[in-house]
Design brief:
Residues 40-70 are annotated as: Disordered. This protein is mainly α. The protein has helices at 2-30, 36-43, 62-69. The protein is elongated and about 70 Å long.
Length: 70
């Protein structure tokens, strides 16, 4: 029973602290100034082919396939 109490106390204190620090690190990493380009690119994916739909693989030439993959 003594081992259980020790592990429970350890998890309650240091485990909670470790999870909080991990969460804080993820939040800071997301808002770093250098991440703007990655966020900008991912948020514009739905509008990439706004004027015309992406071509089918059978109808497209290599340049159009490459554009559809970007």
């Amino acid at each position: 029973m003594e081992e259980y109490n020790f592990l429970r106390t350890l998890a309650d204190s240091w485990g909670l602290l470790a999870m909080f620090l991990f969460f804080l690190g993820v939040v800071i990493w997301v808002f770093l100034p250098g991440r703007g380009k990655a966020h900008e690119e991912s948020k514009t994916i739905p509008f990439r082919h706004e004027d015309a739909p992406a071509p089918d693989d059978g109808d497209a030439d290599d340049a159009q396939r490459e554009e559809a993959r970007k």
